[in-house]
Amino acid sequence: MKLIANSGNDRVVDALRSALPGAGQLDVASPEFSLFAFSEIGDLLAGLEKCRMVLPSVKDGDLGLLGGDADRGARNRLEARALARACSEWLRVKAEVRGVPGALPQSALVACDGKAGTCRAITGNCALSLGGIGMAPGNQFGLIQCSESAAEGEMLAAWFNGLWNGLPANDAMRQALMDRLNELVAHKAPAQVYYLTLYHLFKDLGEELDEERIVKSATGIRNTVVWRKLFKFQRDGVIGALDKLERLGGCIVADSVGLGKTFEALAIIKYYELRNDRVLVLVPKRLRDNWTLYKANDKRNFLAGDRFH
Length: 309
Description:
The protein is built from 13 helices and seven strands. It has helices at residues 12-19, 35-40, 42-46, 72-75, 80-94, 150-165, 172-185, 190-202, 211-214, 225-229, 232-248, 261-274, 288-292; strands at residues 2-3, 25-29, 50-56, 95-100, 107-113, 118-124, 144-146. It is of the alpha/beta class. Helix content is 41%, strand content 12%.
């Protein structure tokens, strides 16, 4: 066995490129299956007679189909949908897939030439991901080995056969993987994209937007006219804005037209005025009178009782 550094010209993808053209079959045991790794060796996979894949159950995760942090550049090319379609078709035509419960502790890639009766194997930290095949920085502490002799290749091919034969022989795992790929191919409603974006932005907030922690009762803000006129969702917006102003030093309130951004802004202004902070309002000239009204003793100013400065 020889070691593969998985960098420079000594990468798993290079070893695969030298082994696959003469191979009729590729056997894969991998904890991950990235669409971007599939893209890198897709031309070689298309030339195989068949491919046997052992993967963790799709129910336990998505197998890293869209990669991790190292795959951001690949994701930014916005090709995932096309890759998912191509991969699903390849799975349907070329691949058999069996699932294992839990995670695989390591990976194995065994390329066999049925005519010559020879096999070449790569084992270790060589998952089917960009990092695993050497197309992106991977775990520098991972060990990857490649067989050099026919006996070593046959030994690892026999190990894979034992693993494969010990798993349930049905099409459920392949179908589950293809269903997941088809989800990536399907068009998404704009609202779903919007809600998913909100989820990822706010899923880790937990109790950070706790009103009692953010809004200091001693300011008397809850006794003001503007606070009492706010709807619950507007108060939530004010609390979120105050939290960001205190933590990050800035905030943009960008609610849709008619949801009360002006009154949310007035509540934020009043909060800081009650703390004896000075507030500067910058607006287009044509809106100047709209805002100065809230400072005036004017019957049109229903917030006059708050005495805005």
